């Protein structure tokens, strides 16, 4: 069975976006980039909500003309070639090898099909929906050494209690900490 893995960057104070949607604070260092590449090797579909999809599709198709960072140069062709799935009730179609579905419930059937993992990148709302449906298998949380003081929280208030099992924790590049949990 395929897994749905949530890979997300967070600040020390638990935000995945700063005030006004700021996302200029994650630093893709060599070890963190290598970890992301390792995750991509077992993945055959990137999974997004509409908001994250719009951010990703606004950058990765032309990343090489906008950045010379080694991570960006290595990941851009992978992003363009990998199948993508967007869960949205407002987006009707999307380019770049992307399928749009209107509910997270449809992911249950996809998990049963043969293939690689589905990598859900960013996005608290979709990750919360997938988790509440019992479809989320792992969280890979990268904690960055920054306090944002506000913005969008990784875990919205009011979620029911849920237990996770720590599978791995380690520093990457002596800068960030990776926390990998299996959901039980």
Task: Annotate the secondary structure layout.
Layout (H helix, E strand, L loop, with lengths): L3 E8 L3 E3 L12 H12 L1 E7 H8 L5 H4 L3 H12 L1 E5 L10 E4 L5 H6 L4 E5 L2 H9 L5 E7 L7 E2 L10 E9 L3 E8 L1
Parallel strand pairs: 1-6, 1-7, 3-4, 3-6, 4-5
Antiparallel strand pairs: 2-8, 7-10, 9-10
Structural write-up:
A hairpin with a 3-residue loop joins strand 9 and strand 10 (176-183). The model has no long low-confidence stretch (mean pLDDT 94). This protein is α/β, with parallel strands linked by helices and 184 residues long. It contains 6 helices and 10 strands.
Helix content: 25-40%
What distance lies between the first and last C-alpha atoms, to the nearest angstrom?
Answer: 16 Å
Main sheet: strand order: 5-4-3-6-1-7-10-9
Order of helices and strands: EEHEHHHEEHEHEEEE
Task: Tell me, briefly, the overall form.
Answer: globular
Uncertain stretches of 5 or more adjacent residues:
none
Structural class: alpha/beta
How many H/I helices? 6
User: If you compute it from the alpha carbons, what radius of gyration comes out, rounded to the nearest whole angstrom?
Assistant: 16 Å
Kindly report the average pLDDT value.
94
């Amino acid at each position: 069975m395929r897994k749905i893995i949530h890979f997300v960057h967070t600040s020390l104070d638990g935000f995945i976006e700063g005030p006004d949607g700021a996302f200029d604070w994650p630093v893709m260092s060599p070890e963190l980039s290598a970890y992301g590449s390792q995750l991509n090797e077992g993945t055959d579909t990137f999974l997004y909500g509409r908001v994250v999809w719009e951010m990703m599709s606004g950058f990765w198709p032309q990343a090489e003309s906008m950045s010379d960072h080694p991570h960006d140069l290595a990941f851009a062709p992978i992003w363009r070639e990998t199948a993508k799935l967007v869960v949205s009730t407002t987006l009707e179609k999307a380019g770049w090898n992307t399928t749009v579905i209107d509910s997270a419930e449809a992911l249950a059937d996809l998990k049963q099909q043969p293939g690689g993992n589905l990598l859900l990148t960013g996005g608290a709302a979709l990750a919360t929906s997938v988790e509440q449906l019992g479809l989320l298998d792992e969280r890979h949380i990268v904690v960055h050494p920054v306090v944002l003081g506000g913005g969008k929280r990784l875990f919205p208030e009011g979620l029911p209690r849920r237990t996770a099992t720590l599978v791995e924790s380690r520093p990457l590049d002596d800068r960030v900490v990776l926390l990998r949990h299996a959901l039980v």
